[in-house]
Amino acid sequence: MQTPEPVRRRIHIDLRAIRENSTRLLGSETASYADLRADAYGHGALRVADALDVEGYEGFIVSPDLDRSSLSQLNTPLLEADVVNSDRITGGSLYGLTDRAYRPAMRVSAEVLAVKDVGAGEGVSYGYSYVTTQQTQLALVGVGYAHGVVRRASNTASVLIGGETRTIVGAISMDQFSVDLLGAEVAPGDLAILFGDPALGEPSILDWQRATGLRAAAIASRMSPRFERSYT
User: How far is CA 50 from CA 15, 21, 72, 106, 217, in A?
Assistant: First the structure.
């Protein structure tokens, strides 16, 4: 029996964006320490530290529970936040998590598992918190709260799917959510982009922040290691 292909769930981290943000922050003469807590806000502390080790920071701020042996080759000292002035720490701006002046570095996407024709008046997901208002198609996207997608995104946050921006509808379940396509052309195997670079027409993590009421840093930090990760 052939083993089925695993569902594609991807996080791509643009280290170039982080370095660009870093250059701006260091140029402001206020940031001296790069914030790598919470696994660099979900971006991968080891990879971010490697990318920033030659930038000239006085130190990298890391979580107390971090296995420092994985960063032992660095030239930049590893420190905890309580030993430095918080005004000198880069914070979420390093990753584009604070405002649109800084480039977002994280793109999250997941595979469309199925597309289903439904009529008007159909309840979606458990609890039927969303009911279709017209004949439409629903796309089932293979990622959910078990992978770190915040449940507050249900019926509020948008994704890029089939070249169109559409809202997540119904309750986000453990490993999937639904999108009302409203005419967008989508097929199983396509990727839905939860958030990424708004310059490319993708929803931004700041859009998700506004939709959910949760800080962008918290949304990014929750992303599970079950995602396939890549870096450029």
Answer: 10, 15, 11, 17, 21
Average of pLDDT values for 18-36? 93
In whole angstroms, give the CA distance from residue 232 to residue 105.
10
pLDDT tens-digit map of 153-202: 999 999 999 999 999 999 999 999 999 999 999 999 999 999 999 999 99
CA proximity to 191, closest of 6, 3, 10:
10
pLDDT in tens, 30-52: 889 999 999 999 999 999 999 99
Instruction: Say if residues 147 and 222 touch (Cβ distance below 8 Å).
Output: no
Domains of the chain: 15-95 (3.20.20.10), 106-231 (2.40.37.10)
**145 — alpha (psi -120 to 50), left (phi > 0) or beta?**
alpha
Cβ neighbours of residue 62 under 8 Å, at least 6 residues apart? 36, 37, 45, 68, 71, 78, 79, 80
Q: Which of 224, 157, 148 is nearest to 195 (CA)?
A: 157
Nearest to 221 by CA among 35, 19, 15, 23: 35
Whether pTM > 0.90 for this model: the answer is yes
- The two three-digit tokens of residue 73, written as one number: 């080759």
